[in-house]
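Need tokens for this chain, all 316 residues.
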Amino acid sequence: MRHILLTIDVEDWFQVENFKSCISYDSWPSRELRVERSTHRLLDLLDSSPLTPPNAKPHPNPASPPTPRATFFVLAWVAERIPGLVREIHARGHEVASHGCRHELCSGQPREALLQDLIQSRHILEDITGQVVYGFRAPSFSISEPILECIRDAGYQYDSSYNSFSLHGRYGRLFLFPNGNGAHDEALMQPVENLVEIPISNVRLGGRVLPWGGGAYFRLIPERVFRSGVRRILNRQKAYIMYLHPWELDPEQPRVRKASVTRKFRHYANLHKTKTRLKNLITAFSDCAFVICKDYMHQTRPTPLVSPPRSPQQTP
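Here are the structure tokens for all 316 residues:
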């Protein structure tokens, strides 16, 4: 069985790294919150996308065919202000995981501050859903071996922060992977003890790694070409890990006019096409299993899933 892991980084339009030079953290409370509406747009799209492969036998319950499940890496800042949204994600059968508290780059924080952020964000989400949070994704894929160890020490059992596309300045590097350059063939690895890494999927072509995991690349690469790359990944690895943001389904969001032309292009290009392209992608690969990260980790490398014993005050 081939697997697709659809992952959503739940943050709002004004919290993205590209706009940090124009939008200060202190201004966040005064900005228009649009993440609830755009996340519901995503949830409704998933609910309306039955997984019915071509020539498949009729589902035993035609009124309720299976639909894609996704993992939502939720920013704790958003969760504290809209806890009902987090409960709704969980109630619709999706996984709630952590994206940190304030979308700060992990690579820019001292270890103790990062550890506190990791533990606090996990407990905020657990208090809202009443369920254990197993996974974490670093903002802007800012990861390294020491950061992985910190994630493990904060009680997480998997991380999904590694993006092997090396030409993006903010993406971290993990030299534990084969060849030392981020090129890898497996979709799931265990880079440090008791912590599994679920890396973002990219295409290897002619010895180069091309960005194919989602985000702006999903909006900019022609649909047929993108789907061809996904098939290539699935044929090689049997799993494809993709990421998106709710604001990518919100073409009416406010424009940040002070940002550079390049950053505005990355952020706003083809936002009006994201919803249709995602729907088409799900339809094109409806013969795959759309699974949450926690279940994929457990199916691929069966390990006991346990609730971390630490409280927010108990930092190593």
